[in-house]
Amino acid sequence: MTGEPIHDLAHIGHAELLTPRPEESLGFFERVLGMEVEAREGRSVFLRGWGDYQRYSLKLTEAERAGLGHMALRAWSQDALERRVAAIEASGLGHGWIDGDLGHGPAYRFSDPDGHALEVYFEVERYSPPEPLRPALKNQPQRYTGRGAAVKRLDHVNLLAADVRANRTFAEDVLGYRLYERVELDDGSEAGAWLSRSIAAHELIYVRDARRSRGRLHHLAFWVDTREEVLRAADLFLENGVHIEAAPSKHTVAQGFFLYGIEPGGNRIEVTNGGYLVYDPDHPPTVWSEAERARGQAWGVRTVESFHTYGTPSDEPVPGR
Amino acid sequence: MTGEPIHDLAHIGHAELLTPRPEESLGFFERVLGMEVEAREGRSVFLRGWGDYQRYSLKLTEAERAGLGHMALRAWSQDALERRVAAIEASGLGHGWIDGDLGHGPAYRFSDPDGHALEVYFEVERYSPPEPLRPALKNQPQRYTGRGAAVKRLDHVNLLAADVRANRTFAEDVLGYRLYERVELDDGSEAGAWLSRSIAAHELIYVRDARRSRGRLHHLAFWVDTREEVLRAADLFLENGVHIEAAPSKHTVAQGFFLYGIEPGGNRIEVTNGGYLVYDPDHPPTVWSEAERARGQAWGVRTVESFHTYGTPSDEPVPGR
Amino acid sequence: MTGEPIHDLAHIGHAELLTPRPEESLGFFERVLGMEVEAREGRSVFLRGWGDYQRYSLKLTEAERAGLGHMALRAWSQDALERRVAAIEASGLGHGWIDGDLGHGPAYRFSDPDGHALEVYFEVERYSPPEPLRPALKNQPQRYTGRGAAVKRLDHVNLLAADVRANRTFAEDVLGYRLYERVELDDGSEAGAWLSRSIAAHELIYVRDARRSRGRLHHLAFWVDTREEVLRAADLFLENGVHIEAAPSKHTVAQGFFLYGIEPGGNRIEVTNGGYLVYDPDHPPTVWSEAERARGQAWGVRTVESFHTYGTPSDEPVPGR
Amino acid sequence: MTGEPIHDLAHIGHAELLTPRPEESLGFFERVLGMEVEAREGRSVFLRGWGDYQRYSLKLTEAERAGLGHMALRAWSQDALERRVAAIEASGLGHGWIDGDLGHGPAYRFSDPDGHALEVYFEVERYSPPEPLRPALKNQPQRYTGRGAAVKRLDHVNLLAADVRANRTFAEDVLGYRLYERVELDDGSEAGAWLSRSIAAHELIYVRDARRSRGRLHHLAFWVDTREEVLRAADLFLENGVHIEAAPSKHTVAQGFFLYGIEPGGNRIEVTNGGYLVYDPDHPPTVWSEAERARGQAWGVRTVESFHTYGTPSDEPVPGR
Fold it and tell me: What is the share, in percent, of chain A residues with pLDDT greater than 90?
C-alpha cells in the first residue's frame, strides 16, 4: 500500500444469503446457530447474533438458487461514504443509489470485478432489544441466550473469484481494505487474499473459483468467543444432522479456528474463533507459496476436495447429500 | 481404611430436591440448567441430564420448605445390595424396604447419623430416548441439545451435618465410601469430609452445619464437561436472574472448578467441572488444618459468609433475596 | 459380565517404552510433553507427569527397536494381588515373580494372549517432590510447572493384537477389566475393545493389528485436564517438529478428544482429554458395526492410513519421516 | 465525537516499567509470564511476547521506585506522526523530540494532563527471530514456546489519574482515542474511562487515583488467546508464589476476562482475554452510574480494597506482602 491509508469503511454490515429451502435454512440459523429473528419482509427473514449492534447481520432470502444476495459495507461517516462512492464510480463498477433497506439508510450499489453485488451505506438503526432479550450487562446489545451455537455476529465473508488479484486490488485501492495475507502460485497467479478493514485478521477473503464461475460465495463465517464454542458447535451440527464439511481445526492462513458445515440451502457456513490481531499499521502481507499451501492446515489437516471446488450457486451436488 | 475395601455401592443414583416454588424451580432446571423432563408423578417432576444412563438423576418435589427429600445410592449388584442392607441394619439406622420409585426397583430406606433420608437400590430402568432426543453417537444416552447450561448429570451431593466425623465414618464403614480429603480444626473436630465411591475426587461431601441443625443440604452439583461451560453457565445465570453466590473459581479442597447459584426454591446448586481422579487404591487422605483452610480457595477467593452458614431448609433469608 | 465383578486391579501403574533414539525421545517427553525425570538407571530414564502419585508412570528404555517394554498393573491390595496371580497362573500365561523395579515392590510377570509383557504389583513408593517441585496445594503430588504440554499422567495404553477377542476376554475374565465398547466386523471378528478398571471410559484398549504381528504397541496416551490443552499441545508439536499423525478431534468410540504424534523413537503418543465416565455398574457395552465405524470420527474426520496400520516395532517407515 | 475521526495513532507500542527489584521482576516476566529477553541496555531489559511484531513491548528498567517509566504510541505513518505532534504541541503538553530508543526511530515526548510520560513514534524495527525462536507458521512473529503463561503481547495500559475527565478528553481530542465506556459518579465526576485506537474494547484506560497522586500506574495487561490460558496463568501464579490480587473472573466494564497479580517490583500485572470488538464507527459510549458500578464485576465478584486504591509508585504496603 502506498500513500495514506483509506479509513472510510468500517466493516461488513450484513450479508444476504439466498436459499432454495427457506424454512429449513431458517431452522438452521435460528435453532442450530442460535440467531434471533429480528424482522421478516417479503421473502426475507432478518437475523442477528447476540453481539450485533445493528438490527441484523444476516438477511436470509428465498431464491431459486443458493448463493450470496448481496454484501453491505458500512462507512465511517457520511463524508466517508461519499468519498467511497466517488471512488467506486470512478472505477466504473458503480450501479447507483437505493433508498436503503430494513434497518439502514441510503445505500450505493456496485459490483466487485467478479460481479458480486455489494453496497455501501452509513445511516443505521441500532438494535433495541425487546424485554425478553434485554441483556444483564448494558454494554452488550442483546441477551446471551445460549441457544444452539449462539453465534455472536457475522465475522467475515469469503467470496470466490475467477481473478483473485483483480478483486483484491479493487478492495485495496477502491474500498480501502488492507491486505494481510495472500497465496501466490508458482505461475504467479493469486489463489487467495485475506483482507480487513480493522485489526481483525480477515473480514473479506477472495479465493480462486476452481470452476471459474463468477459471483459465487465460498462461505459466510459467524463468530463465537472461544474455541470451546467451536467444538460445541460441532457437537450441535452432529446432533442436528448438519453436514460437517471440515471438523474443527486451525487454519494455516490467518490462523483462524474453524468449523465448516453446509446449511440446508446448500451454502457453506463457518463457525469461527481465533486468528490474530494486526496492530502494525504498515503490516507487510504474508505471502504463501504453492508448496507452502500444499502442507495443509496448521496441524496437518487436509480439507476435503469439495472445500476447494464447491461454492454457491452450484450445479454440482451439495456436499453431504 | 483397614481390611479389604467395600465395593458394594456404585454411585449416587439420584437426589430428590424439595421446593416451595415448584414452577419456578422447574423453569430453572429445565431452561437454565438445560435438563429434560422425563416424567411427572404427583407433586414431583423427574429430570435428567444428557449423560444420565438412568431415566433421571433429579426428582424435584413440591414441598413447604426447601431441602433434600432423599438421596438414593445404586448398588453394584443384587448381592451387593443385600450386603449393604445387612450392614445398615446392623448400624441401627435402617428403616426398611420400599417397593421402589419411578425408574427403579426395591429400595431400602435408612438415615445417616445426621438424619438425612437415604436409600439403596440395584434394579434400574435404563433410559430410552424418544426420537427427538436420540443421540447421533450411540455411546451416549441422549442427544446433547445444548440448551442452557446443558448439564450432563448429577455429580455430587454436599450434606450439612452437625457431627461430620460421625457421618464420615458411617459412610466409610457402613457404605464403603473412600475418604479422599478432610478438614480438621484446631480443636480436633472435623469441619468437612470429601468421600467417593469411584476415582472421582468427590461424590459425597459432609460439611459442618454452622447452625447445628440436622438433615440439611448444602448443595447438589451438576457436571459439565469443561471449565468453559462453567463460565458459560455463569453468563446464563446472570442473564436469567439466578443469584450467583460464588462466581466461577477453583476450590482448594478437591480442586473442583465451581459456580454456585441459588435456584428459585432456595436450594444451592453447583455447576462443576475439574477436580482430579484418584487412581491410588490406598490413597492417604489429605488432611487440611484450620490455618490452611483460612487461606481461601485455590486462587485466593474468599467465599461469602452465606456459603458457610446457609443450607436448606432454613429460617434465614435466601441469599440474593 | 456374569457373576460378581472382580475389583482386584486398580490401574495401569506404568508403561515401559523402548526407543532406538533415547536422547531425542527423552527430549520429547521432557521438553515437549513436559514430564519430569525422576530417576535414571542403566539404559532407562523414569519420567512422571505432575499428577502421578507414584514416582513415575513412564519408563523410557534404550533398545534396538521401538515398542512396548512392558506394562505394569497395580493391584488394590496384597490379597488382591495374590488372587490375580493365582488366576493368571491358572490361565497358563504366567511367568513368575520378580523382585520389583525402581519405585515398586515384588511383581508377577505374565503375558497377554498376544504376547505383550505385563506385570502386576501392589507395593509402591509414593512420590515425594524435591523442593523446586513442591506443589502449592498439598492435594497435588507435584508442582504444575506448565512446561510443554504439561501432561498430568499416563492415561491409557492401546495394544495391537492379532486376535482382539482372545485378549479382550483374557482382560475381562482373568484381570477383571470391564468392557465398555467394542467393534465387531461383519465377519463376526472383533476389531477393537475398550476396557477399563475404573469409571474412566478406557484404560486398556486392544485394536486389531493390521499386519497380524504380535506384541505390538499402538500408542501410549497421556492426560491433560482440558481440551484447550490438547489444542495447545498441537501447537507445541508443530513448533517442535513433532510429526502430527492426527490433529486434535473427537473420537466416536469412547468420545475421547485426541492428538496423535510420533515421538522421535518412532512410537505413537497421544495427548488426550474428554471421554465419559461409566457410573453404571452393569453397563451394557456399546457394540459398533463395520458400517458404523466406516463413518469416521465423531465430527467426520478420517484418520490417515498409517493410523490403522502402523505400530511398534515396525519394519515400515515411521509416519512423517 | 464530532467531526471526522482521527486515525493517526495505531496502538501502544510499548511500555516501560520501573522496578526496584530488577532481577526478581525479570524472573517474573521471563519465567512466569513467559516473555523473551530481546535485548539488554544499561539498567533496562527489553522483553517481548510471542505475538509482538516489534522487537519488544515491555522495557523493564531498574529504578528506586516501581511505576510506569513511559508509554509509547506508534503512529500510522510519518505524516500521521507529524500531525499528532502538532496537536500535542498545541495542547501545551509537548516536551520535544528524542532520537529514539532501541528498536524504534525518533520519538516525540509529552505528558498527559496527569503527568504520565508518553511518546509517539513511527519508525520501527520489525522482529527477526533467531533460529531457536523461528515459528513454524510464517504469519507469526515468533515461535510459541508455551513457557509460563506464554503471554502473546502487551494488550492495554491502565493509568491512574487525579482527574479522569481531563485525561480522557485529552486522549480523545489530541490523540484521537475513541471512548467506549466510562463511569460517571453521582457528583458528575468521572471515575474511569475505557479508550481504544482500534476495535478492541480497551487499549488505554484512565481510572481515578483514590490517593489523588499523579502519574501513577494501575496496571499493565498482557494478552493470552483463551480464557483457559488465564485460568492456567492463575495456577502458575499460585505455584510460583506470585500474589494473586484478583482471581480470574469477568469484568462488567468492557467484559474482559482478568487475572491480576503483583510482580516482585510491586507493580500490578494483568493477564487478560475476552472483551468485545467495537465495529460500530460511531459507537455511543456506555456510561455506568455509581449504583451500577457498586454491583461488582459481571458475576458478582467484589474486588479487594487494594484494587481500588493501590497504584505504583506507592508509599503503602505492596498487596500480598
Answer: 98
